[in-house]
Design goal:
The complex is a heterodimer of chains A (450) and B (334). Chain A has 450 residues and is mainly alpha-helical. Chain A is 70% helix and 6% strand. Chain A has one domain. In chain A, strands 1-2 form a two-stranded antiparallel sheet. Chain A has a two-stranded antiparallel sheet with strand order 3-4. The radius of gyration of chain A is 24 Å and the shape is globular. Chain B has a two-stranded antiparallel ribbon with strand order 1-2. The chains are: A mainly alpha (450), B mainly alpha (334). At the A-B interface, helix 3, helix 4 and helix 14 of A face helix 3, helix 4, helix 5 and helix 12 of B.
């Protein structure tokens, strides 16, 4: 197998696995901020237990996210040396900024969040939770800015065949950064909230810690509904931007071959790259044009505008895009139903919804992955759109055997991590929140001293 | 070479120095983990670093990112050239992060034992391989005209690099023991002092040999500066031993930290003006001048560093003040 393919497999594998966790933790971090805020204003000890418990669950996922994230910082150098040389003047800066401006923040205050409840004041503790949420969101921002530059490069000029920075602001806030950032962070909020909802539903199904689970689910459902509804607008915004800046990608998403006005929105079909057509397509006439430009007269570019060697592969972008959008609409329905049941006080005893919530846990995670596949495979054959092809970006002299070895090693370690994560998560849930009302050590010591 | 490029050469050194001092001690604690007397002592070890190790490790990520941003050619050549070593470091760091979080989640002795081993190996392996990588960088790599390493894997396991690796491993082990001596109380602290004393002898010996070898054969920059930095580092190392023997644990630890900074100064002086010398042909060396990013990128990065690092140092100090005093909690959690 050739080294480019191996390097791509390794990258897809490591980032695909890593990308399970940051959305869970970014979303949960904000939910924990909300829970602590609520606990701070309430006199009910259960509210504090709710926050405490989810902080522990958060810590498990955060640990796996951190562990698998280390790989990403170095993989551009190990597997994509020619890419690193090519984009070094632009791409390294946001990664470094992530470390200095975001990752330090979340990691340092995570220590306070996990171990500092008795060591700092409640206000300081809530502040630490907020810093973890802000830090992890900012972390996402810098990574997304870097990725967006690959999609829609800006703020540079070509000097000696390589991009050289002319404006850092333009490079960071390139045309796709903001839509992609809002879209991905909103996806993280959905992921985090459905994670909490689903795990709470599991407790409700087992009749364990019922009031605790109900309260947790309620907070998360509200976040989930707002985020799911907002995603319709944010996702649309991002898609319009893709249509404007990466028309080949949008054409691949839609299986659209001919440039046309009144372009249809294809619901299903079989894109056929050889025959340059999408067979058995069923679509809604004019809707794609309408969505892209608010008018059925809007012209949408088809794949035939692009030379065959500049077209993305079709199967993955076409289907992952469809599945992502479909799941997005399901999330609105799911969370709306949940909020309705909560309002009607049926959350605790309506079992079908609890089962539904349980099987919904992995769906936002899958949706994030589908969105990532759409975005990255849709960018092919470019690693930096229009500037550098993926086939020219790898480390030319790393032996294939070493890459295979590292893929196998990482697979084994990641499989282990995943199994452990699930196992410990399950135990943690079954044990549930601490049943004894929390007392700090000084008071406890005073209480036993006669 | 411009002042801006030189500044970044120094700043990369500062980030790597910060990393060695901070993650150095928690990697070092990991090296001692299997030598902990019982489960309680091992829990103490993990509790001692629990709230801070993650932040410490960010210095590595920030250093890696900054190297990418400031000297992309070096980032590309070193990381692809030392491919296998880097992958093993990554696997070590992954296992270690998982072990710290997961070990105390289940009471079973077998479970704990497995994670204890993962924590120890995941700490010792990077501690060793960082030194091997540094040794190879100082010694120089065989590079082609595109900056790719062409020397093959086995050549990386040369005696000099292995010596630097062993020196680094013992240095981190000493640093970790000094940290434990300062952080723990009673018998565990006393045992840590003893471990520091014994490790110190091995480390000091390795350090003298490795430094002598470096000064004799591998200084391409300023020999006088490299000698000066080595003498200062030696003072710090000797100081850490004297202070350790007098039970002044915190000062011993700080003395060891200062020695690490001096060692990085010495490495910089030996390499200057190269970042990665090419062994086969000096004209192919990756230097400060030919491997850096453009002035625009270096300036932006400088602003980010000047705004960001004081903040980082500020809240890191707050967190150390919060967690590095008072008895350790070995209750649920860790």
């Amino acid at each position: 197998m050739d080294a480019v393919l191996l390097a791509r497999i390794q990258f897809a594998l490591t980032i695909g696995f890593h990308y399970i966790f940051p959305p869970i933790t970014i979303g949960m971090a904000w939910i924990i901020v909300a829970m602590l805020h609520r606990a701070g204003r309430s006199s009910d000890a259960l509210d504090l237990q709710v926050a405490r418990f989810w902080i522990k669950v958060f810590a498990l996922s955060f640990a796996v996210g951190v562990a698998t994230g280390i790989t990403m910082e170095f993989q551009f150098g190990t597997n994509w040396a020619d890419y690193s040389r090519f984009v070094g003047d632009i791409f390294g800066a946001p990664l470094a900024a992530e470390g200095i401006l975001a990752f330090f923040l979340e990691s340092s205050f995570l220590g306070v969040l996990l171990f500092g409840e008795k060591k700092v004041s409640p206000r300081c503790y809530r502040f630490a939770a907020l810093m973890v949420a802000i830090g992890s969101t900012l972390s996402g921002f810098w990574i997304i800015a870097a990725n967006s530059w690959q999609q829609t490069p800006a703020g540079f000029e070509m000097v000696d065949g390589r991009p050289r920075l002319t404006s850092f602001i333009d490079a960071v806030f390139n045309p796709s950064t903001l839509p992609r950032f809002c879209h991905a962070i909103d996806g993280a909020l959905i992921t985090g909230s459905f994670f909490v909802v689903g795990l709470s539903a599991w407790l409700l199904l087992r009749r364990r810690h019922v009031e605790f689970a109900r309260r947790s689910a309620a907070i998360a459902l509200v976040v989930g509904l707002v985020a799911s509804a907002a995603q319709i607008g944010l996702g649309h915004w991002h898609a319009v931007q893709v249509a404007r800046d990466q028309p080949a990608k949008l054409a691949a998403f839609e299986g659209l071959w001919e440039t046309q006005r009144n372009a249809p929105l294809t619901l299903v079909g079989i894109p056929d790259a050889e025959g340059e057509q999408t067979r058995h397509a069923i679509g809604i006439p004019g809707l794609l044009s309408l969505l892209v430009g608010l008018s059925t007269e809007t012209e949408v570019k088809g794949l035939k505008e692009f030379r065959p060697e500049d077209r993305p592969p079709l199967f993955l972008p076409f289907w992952s895009w469809r599945a992502m959008v479909g799941l997005g609409f399901y999330f609105v329905a799911f969370s709306a139903l949940g909020v309705f049941l909560w309002w009607r006080r049926r959350l605790v005893d309506f079992k079908p919804y609890q089962y539904l919530a349980l099987i919904t846990i992995p769906l936002p995670i899958i949706t994030n992955e589908l969105g990532w596949i759409s975005a990255e495979v849709g960018r092919q054959p470019w690693v930096v759109q229009g500037l550098l092809r993926t086939a020219q970006a790898h480390s030319p002299l790393v032996p294939a055997g070493q890459i295979v070895f590292s893929i196998l090693l990482l697979c084994a370690v990641y499989a282990l991590l995943f199994a452990v994560w699930i196992y410990v998560l399950r135990r943690k849930l079954l044990r549930g929140p601490d049943q004894v009302a929390p007392v700090d050590q000084a008071t406890a010591a005073a209480a036993v001293t006669p | 070479m411009t002042a801006l490029q030189l500044t970044w050469f120094v700043l990369i050194g500062v980030l790597l120095g910060g990393y060695s001092i901070l993650d150095g001690f928690d990697l070092g604690v990991g090296c001692w983990h299997l030598f902990g007397r019982d489960d309680r002592e091992r829990r103490l070890f993990i509790s001692a670093i629990g709230p801070v190790w993650d932040g410490n490790e960010v210095w590595l990520l920030a250093g890696g990112g900054a190297l990418f941003a400031a000297f992309p050619a070096v980032y590309a050549s070193v990381f692809s050239g030392l491919y296998l070593a880097l992958m093993l470091v990554l696997v070590g760091l992954i296992l270690r992060a998982a072990a710290i979080e997961f070990r105390s989640q289940v009471e079973s002795p077998a479970w704990r034992r497995a994670w204890d081993v993962a924590f120890a190996v995941g700490s010792a392996l990077p501690a060793l391989l960082f030194g091997v990588a540094l040794g190879n960088a100082v010694r120089g790599l065989e590079l082609d005209a595109g900056g790719n390493y062409v020397g093959g894997f086995v050549a990386l396991l040369n005696p000099y690099a292995l010596l630097v690796g062993a020196t680094g491993l013992t240095m981190f082990a000493l640093h970790g023991a000094l940290f434990l001596a300062a952080r723990l109380d009673g018998e565990p602290a006393e045992r840590a002092r003893g471990r520091a004393r014994r490790t110190w002898i091995v480390f000091a010996l390795l350090f003298v040999v490795a430094t002598g070898w470096t000064l004799a054969f591998h200084v391409r920059g300023s020999l006088s500066l490299a000698i000066a930095a080595s003498i200062l580092a030696l003072l710090g190392i000797v100081g850490s031993s004297l202070l350790n023997r007098r039970g002044r644990d915190l000062s011993a630890f700080l003395s060891s930290a200062a020695a690490m900074l001096c060692i990085w100064g010495g490495v910089g002086a030996a390499l200057f003006p190269n970042l990665v010398p090419a062994r086969n042909d000096p004209a192919l060396s990756l230097t400060i001048a030919n491997s850096s990013s453009s002035p625009a990128t270096l300036s932006v990065m400088l602003v980010i560093a000047l705004v960001g690092l004081p903040l980082v140092i500020g809240y890191t100090a707050f967190i150390y003040r919060t967690f590095m005093r008072g008895p350790l909690d070995v209750g649920p959690g860790y």
